[in-house]
């Protein structure tokens, strides 16, 4: 529409795009990126697009892929954290930061602080009865201080200047702990996520030449979800844009749900102040929701006036619907939550069956994690497919609990609870009645002792095979775990027990993917800890529980199943039918909770609202929830949840009803609802179809895996079946990362030495997948010898690479093949040599002329980087030998045809196996029907 065009084709200078829900803001941002490139105003490398979440950056990248007619060099589309991390790794040395710093996540921070807790000068906030009580609150406070760019010394100085009181002592204690925490992080070469932008700003302020370099590199800056960025992030984009002022920010204050103390307008108002010549475009044409939904949501959000941009700037933000559907908003009141959950599930089934609405177009939105379970149980009762978007992480999922019980039992065979859960696993076919009998017979003995001594004929009839299988399996696993890492032990259990085969036979693909996510966390634990035994990981789980942390499941694939998620998690999503449930006071809105620590307003840079910021924040969250709906919106609430009290309806229901297009229904008590629930049989979990090939972005590894075996490709990339860590792959990564970081030093003009190479090798070492510590030590020692050989062969003189780790995106038809080239060297004749490191053995008779990977690199150099390439080389590090080839334009055109044919095969594939010699080495041989 005209407003969108105005934003897309905006010429130069600052631009504020106020984009209401469903107005196509992502399309506008990506269209502007494409327009900047197509018009010649900017090259891809001159554009910086910053997003609030990884999901948003991936979506933006996919949209750009679809819109670009040709291949293109990498565009910097990143989250603020990822972009800041990149800068610090590239230029952090300028302020004394080691570019090889380790980035701590929330759980790492908790462990670090617990480990060092008695090195802090704490009194009030380290009670000896529960020393860890305030760790989480302190870390959260430190993070907010960094978001506000409040330095430790400034905080300490503020505390010292307070009037003498107990409060002053407390603030001094907190400020001192903040200073000590930062010093300890730097001493250990650690940074947390809050440090990333915090140190980039210090870098830019202390080294103006570095700021000028990045400001010159990124001539056009775009920021998505601007309303949720913090002060430090705003300051970052402001500094990058000061020279050229070509900054576009997109935001909606009505959808601000992450700002501290409800400062939803702060960044937008500060943008208007810092860039007074800015142009403003307001997007109000909504392409998602019906008129009734938009009118109801507008009536709701106006209750936040005057603390809204619409009032402050005198603009209209009333959204106009471009959707034909005309269903009223429905509000349903129930006497109890059982009828509420029953209505929700049955309505979903009815609409799916009668109107053919896919299950994936239904969403149940809850305000907090605790409200999920009853809705899950009701969907199970009706046999409807559902997907819970990990409200509490992986640790609450049944399949992960099974694996945790195995880990707990192997760490402590006297853990009767863990063993009882193992006995309950379906693969062992032991009923609850039989488990009860076994427990009773064991008397005062631990269950494991009874199972070890009991003879088969004394076991309850029907349990013999299951109990014997458990005894044999866990006798083996206990012995195996004595000299193996937790990852290898878990893989041994999955293989020997038949657990994974059972899931595959039952087509429980979602559960398999969850196990894969859990395996990633185990791999990370092994990567970052020298002690990797079952006992060590069990201790890690203890700390996880103590810190009240969760293990998040990343990259959950979309399935045709009902989505159950929190209102925060629904941001950026849309569904045909939305149920906003449990809409009662004290649940939505939740009760206001006071922060344990608060930042003095004198130190902040935010602009705070005049009204009740808590209720305004909750109202914005409710607004986000209802604007996820396309055609139908149901808001439900009950008189009774737990306890006997009657719950009051949420005030937001009255507010949405002011639009007039809302229907209210009060349901009478159903006498038979409890009996019906008891009598119902719970069917098996929903069966999902094998995921179809729907990739728009591919890599060489994916193409090569499919060529080798389509079924292996399906297992690895579509079903994501977990596989054990490969020591060969991890050795390759260790060497590759070492050489890359070494050449970064060389490229920046710094002195290099064999001592530096050895130091980088030790730092980058990944000790995963080895059969034993002796195996790992031997491999590491041999790798060091290989690097010494490499150093001696290449140091006289060193060739300084033109580029390292250069990413590319090749547009081939409707697909993008992405990757990165290890190294590009400029030769004396002005042409370039591509170098790809290999740590495997050089195979005799290898035909490089038909190597797909090198052909893709040649095409990237020609069409993306636009540099002439005369040599394509594979450097076999262990053999210290480089083999080279080249590609003609005709050969490159043949490659394009071959990739097109390969992708076409992938689209049509039934993913059949390709049995052969390599099968015995395949990580999926256990679940492959061809082996």
> The CATH topology of the largest domain, please?
Lambda Exonuclease, Chain A
Number of domains: 5
CATH architecture identity of the largest domain: Alpha-Beta Complex
Tally of separate helices:
35
Written description of the protein model:
The protein is an alpha/beta fold. The protein folds into five domains: 2-92 and 197-283, P-loop containing nucleotide triphosphate hydrolases (Rossmann fold, 3-Layer(aba) Sandwich); 103-188; 329-389 and 558-679, P-loop containing nucleotide triphosphate hydrolases (Rossmann fold); 394-546, PCRA, domain 4 (Orthogonal Bundle); 699-908, Lambda Exonuclease, Chain A. Helices cover 46% and strands 13% of the residues. The protein is built from 35 helices and 24 strands. Strand 22 (832-838), helix 34 and strand 23 (869-876) form a beta-alpha-beta unit. The longest helix has 22 residues, at 166-187. The radius of gyration is 30 Å and the shape is globular. Mean pLDDT is 87; it is low at 679-690.
């Amino acid at each position: 529409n005209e407003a969108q065009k105005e934003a897309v084709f905006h010429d130069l200078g600052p631009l504020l795009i106020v984009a209401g829900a469903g107005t196509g803001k992502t399309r506008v941002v990506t269209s502007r990126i494409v327009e900047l490139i197509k018009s010649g105003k900017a090259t891809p490398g001159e554009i910086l697009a910053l997003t609030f979440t990884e999901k948003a950056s991936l979506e933006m990248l996919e949209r750009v892929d679809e819109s670009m007619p040709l291949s293109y060099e990498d565009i910097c589309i990143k989250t603020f954290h990822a972009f800041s991390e990149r800068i610090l790794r590239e230029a952090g040395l300028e302020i004394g930061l080691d570019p090889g710093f380790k980035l701590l996540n929330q759980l790492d921070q908790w462990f670090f602080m617990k480990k060092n807790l008695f090195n802090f000068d704490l009194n009030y906030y380290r009670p000896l009865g529960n020393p860890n009580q305030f760790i989480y609150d302190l870390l959260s406070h430190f993070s907010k201080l960094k978001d506000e760019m409040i330095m430790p010394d400034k905080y300490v100085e503020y505390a010292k200047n307070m009037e003498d009181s107990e409060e002053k002592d407390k603030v001094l204690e907190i400020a001192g702990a903040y200073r000590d925490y930062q010093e300890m992080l730097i001493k250990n070469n650690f940074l947390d996520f809050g440090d990333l932008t915090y140190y980039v700003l210090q870098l830019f302020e202390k080294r103006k030449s570095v700021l000028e370099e990045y400001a010159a590199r990124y001539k056009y800056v775009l920021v998505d979800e601007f309303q949720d960025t913090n002060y430090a992030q705003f300051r970052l984009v402001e500094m990058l844009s000061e020279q050229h002022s070509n900054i576009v920010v997109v935001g909606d204050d009505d959808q601000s749900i992450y700002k501290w103390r409800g400062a939803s307008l702060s960044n937008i108002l500060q943008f208007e102040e810092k860039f007074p010549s800015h142009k403003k475009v307001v997007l109000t044409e909504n392409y998602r929701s019906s008129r009734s939904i938009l009118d109801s949501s507008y009536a709701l959000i106006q209750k936040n006036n005057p603390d809204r941009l619409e009032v402050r700037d005198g603009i209209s933000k009333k959204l106009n619907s471009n959707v034909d559907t005309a269903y009223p908003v429905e509000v349903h009141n129930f006497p109890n939550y059982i009828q509420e959950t029953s209505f929700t599930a049955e309505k979903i089934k009815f609409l799916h069956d009668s109107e053919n609405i896919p299950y994936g177009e239904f969403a149940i939105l809850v305000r907090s994690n605790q409200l999920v379970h009853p809705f899950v149980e009701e969907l199970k009762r009706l046999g409807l497919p559902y997907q819970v978007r990990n409200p509490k992480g992986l640790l609450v999922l049944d399949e992960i609990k099974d694996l945790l019980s195995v880990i707990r039992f192997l760490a402590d065979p006297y853990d009767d609870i863990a063993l009882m859960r193992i006995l309950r696993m379906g693969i062992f076919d032991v009923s609850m009645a039989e488990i009860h009998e076994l427990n009773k017979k064991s008397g005062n003995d631990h269950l494991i002792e009874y199972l070890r001594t009991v003879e088969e004929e004394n076991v309850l009839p029907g349990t013999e095979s299951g109990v014997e299988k458990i005894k044999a399996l866990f006798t083996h696993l206990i012995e195996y775990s004595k000299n193996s890492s937790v990852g290898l032990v878990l893989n041994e259990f999955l293989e020997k027990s038949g657990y994974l085969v059972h899931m595959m036979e039952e087509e429980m693909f979602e559960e398999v993917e969850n196990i894969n996510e859990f395996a990633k966390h185990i791999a990370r634990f092994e990567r970052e800890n020298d002690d990797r035994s079952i006992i060590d990981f069990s201790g890690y789980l203890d700390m996880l529980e103590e810190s009240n942390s969760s293990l998040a499941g990343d990259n959950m694939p979309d399935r045709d199943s009902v989505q159950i998620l929190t209102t925060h998690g629904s941001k950026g999503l849309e569904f045909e039918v939305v149920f906003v449930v449990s809409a009662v006071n004290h649940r939505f809105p939740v009760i206001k909770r006071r922060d344990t620590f608060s930042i003095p307003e004198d130190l902040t840079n935010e602009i705070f609202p005049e009204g009740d910021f808590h209720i305004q924040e909750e109202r914005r969250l409710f607004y986000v929830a209802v604007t996820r709906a396309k055609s139908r919106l149901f808001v439900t609430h009950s008189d009774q949840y737990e306890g006997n009290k009657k719950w009051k309806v949420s005030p937001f229901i009255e507010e949405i009803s002011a639009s007039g297009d809302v229907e209210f229904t009060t349901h009478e008590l159903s006498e038979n609802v409890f009996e019906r629930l008891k009598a119902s049989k719970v069917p098996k979990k929903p069966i999902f179809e094998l995921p179809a090939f729907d990739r728009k972005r591919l890599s060489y590894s994916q193409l090569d895996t499919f060529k080798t075996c389509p079924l292996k490709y399906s297992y690895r990339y579509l079903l994501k079946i977990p596989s054990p860590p490969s020591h060969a792959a991890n050795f390759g990564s260790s060497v590759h990362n070492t050489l890359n970081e070494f050449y970064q030093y060389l490229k920046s003009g710094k002195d290099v030495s064999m001592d530096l190479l050895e130091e980088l090798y030790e730092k980058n070492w990944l000790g995963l997948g080895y059969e034993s510590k002796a195996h790992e030590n031997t491999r590491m020692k041999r790798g060091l010898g290989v690097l010494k050989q490499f150093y001696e062969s290449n140091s006289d003189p060193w060739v300084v690479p033109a580029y390292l780790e250069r990413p590319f995106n090749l547009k081939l038809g409707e697909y993008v093949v992405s990757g990165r080239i290890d190294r590009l060297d400029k030769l004396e004749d002005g042409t370039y040599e591509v170098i790809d490191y290999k740590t495997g053995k050089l195979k005799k008779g290898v035909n490089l002329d038909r190597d797909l990977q090198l052909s893709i690199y040649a095409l990237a150099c020609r069409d993306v980087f636009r540099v002439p390439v005369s040599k394509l080389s594979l450097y076999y590090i262990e053999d210290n030998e480089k083999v080279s080839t080249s590609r003609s334009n005709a050969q490159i055109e043949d490659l394009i045809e071959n990739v097109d044919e390969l992708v076409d095969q992938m689209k049509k594939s039934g993913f059949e196996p390709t049995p052969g010699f390599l099968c015995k080495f395949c990580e999926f041989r256990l679940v492959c029907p061809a082996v």
